[in-house]
C-alpha cells in the first residue's frame, strides 16, 4: 500500500522593495519614457542591446507595497530614449529564411509545400503520404512555375 504523499509548502521568498535591484512601478503609475517590450515593438523599436531599467509590478503585488514583485507575471520596462529602430532584414536574409522554411514544410515524397511544418524527423513525410490519403487543396501551396518565356 503506497504511503500518503506529504505536501511540502514552498518557501516564499520575500524581498523588501528597498532591496530590489531595479526600481518598481505599479500598473498605471509608470513614468513617461518607460514602456514594455510589446509597446516597443508596436512603435517599431527594439531595446537596442540595453537591458530593462525598471520593473512593472503585477496586479497581485499591488496589495503588498513593501515587498518587491518576484512573480513571473511582472513586466520589464525599457527606456524609449535608449531604444533603436528595429533592424530590417536584407533580401538575402529573407531568401535564406524562406529556403529554411521551405525545407521544413516540403514533403520529400510528394514534393508538396504545406502551410505548416511537417514532422520530418519522426515521420519522414507528410501525413497524407504516410497514411495514404489525398490531402485537401487548402493545406498546401499551389505549384507556381516561374518560367522566363
Sum up the structure in keywords.
149 residues, alpha+beta, four-stranded mixed β-sheet, two-stranded antiparallel sheet, 17% helix, 11% strand, flat
Compose a concise summary of this entry:
By secondary structure, the protein is an alpha+beta fold.
Question: Can you describe this structure?
Answer:
This protein is an alpha+beta fold and 149 residues long. Helices cover 17% and strands 11% of the residues. It contains three helices and six strands. The strands form two sheets. Strands 1-4-5-2 form a four-stranded mixed sheet. Strands 3-6 form a two-stranded antiparallel sheet. The longest helix has 15 residues, at 91-105. It is flat and about 65 Å long. 10% of the residues are buried. The model has no long low-confidence stretch (mean pLDDT 85).
Count all strands and give the number: 6
Quote the beta fraction. 5-15%
Radius of gyration, rounded?
25 Å
Please state the average pLDDT score. Answer: 85
The parts where pLDDT drops under 50 for at least 5 residues are none
Helix content range of the residues, please? Answer: 10-25%
Shape: flat
Which structural class matches the secondary elements? alpha+beta
Distance between the termini: 79 Å
Number of helices: 3
Question: How are helices and strands ordered from N to C?
Answer: EEHEEEEHH
Major β-sheet, in short? 4 strands, mixed
- How are the strands of the biggest sheet laid out side by side? 1-4-5-2
Amino acid at each position: 500500500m503506497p504511503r500518503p504523499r506529504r505536501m511540502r509548502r514552498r518557501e516564499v521568498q520575500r524581498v523588501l522593495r528597498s532591496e530590489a535591484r531595479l526600481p518598481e512601478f505599479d500598473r498605471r503609475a509608470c513614468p513617461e519614457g518607460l514602456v514594455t517590450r510589446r509597446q516597443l515593438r508596436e512603435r517599431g523599436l527594439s531595446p537596442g542591446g540595453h537591458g530593462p531599467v525598471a520593473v512593472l509590478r503585477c496586479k497581485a503585488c499591488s496589495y503588498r507595497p513593501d515587498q518587491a514583485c518576484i512573480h513571473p507575471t511582472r513586466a520589464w520596462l525599457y527606456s524609449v530614449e535608449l531604444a533603436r529602430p528595429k533592424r530590417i532584414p536584407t533580401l538575402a536574409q529573407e531568401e535564406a529564411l524562406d529556403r529554411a522554411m521551405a525545407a521544413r514544410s516540403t514533403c520529400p515524397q510528394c514534393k508538396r509545400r504545406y502551410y505548416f511544418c511537417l514532422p520530418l524527423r519522426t515521420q519522414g513525410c507528410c501525413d497524407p503520404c504516410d497514411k495514404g490519403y489525398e490531402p485537401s487543396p487548402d493545406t498546401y501551396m499551389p505549384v507556381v512555375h516561374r518560367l522566363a518565356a
